[in-house]
Amino acid sequence: MYKTLSLGFVLGLISQVTVVNAVAGVTTFNDYGTQSTVACPGFSPSNSQGNGIFAAAMSDLSPLWTGSPCQGTKSASNCNGHGGCINCAGPACPNEQQCGHCFNVRCTGSLDGETSGACSGRTIKVKIIDACPATHPANYCKTAAFGGTVPDREACEAVGVNALDIATTARSALSSFQGNLNIDI
């Protein structure tokens, strides 16, 4: 038996499909299991989010961030001049609208110029459970402008770089590189 579908029904189905184009960016790695909290309410600070899904934080300067940037200001008085922060109280992040959303991530190369490793070619899924605010002293104090040695793009500081901070357990699934990675999201 054959059924005919109306054009309106088919167009209605197509309109419900969301397409997200790949975005190039960078990723750093974080051990969520050592954290006591995450920015997204209702999510546990765990590297594994179940079913082979890894935890991740998204920079509030990312082009994929859909809420307002986190509310805070950068102040040298919060930094110890050597990359660490004295008062690590962070900004308010009331609009992490990507919380709970999943993204596919694939390694495209070493961010740090390593030549002894390679990308695995695998695509992994990460779930956004945390925010990486550019105005949090734990992030900006690491940069050269505040006495640290971490490049801006590796501390959620570069606008449009689309930094993800992914669970450390995902590193070997993405590549055999030891440092941070260039990725497609």
Automatic annotation (TrEMBL):
InterPro entries: Expansin/allergen_DPBB_dom (IPR007112), RlpA-like_sf (IPR036908)
Lineage, highest ranks first: Eukaryota, Fungi, Dikarya, Basidiomycota, Agaricomycotina
Keyword Transmembrane: no
Name the UniProt record assigns to this protein: Expansin-like EG45 domain-containing protein
Domain Expansin-like EG45 per the UniProt entry, residue ranges: 99-185
Transmembrane segments: none
Residues of the signal peptide: 1-22
Keyword Ligase belongs to the record: no
Entry keyword set: Signal
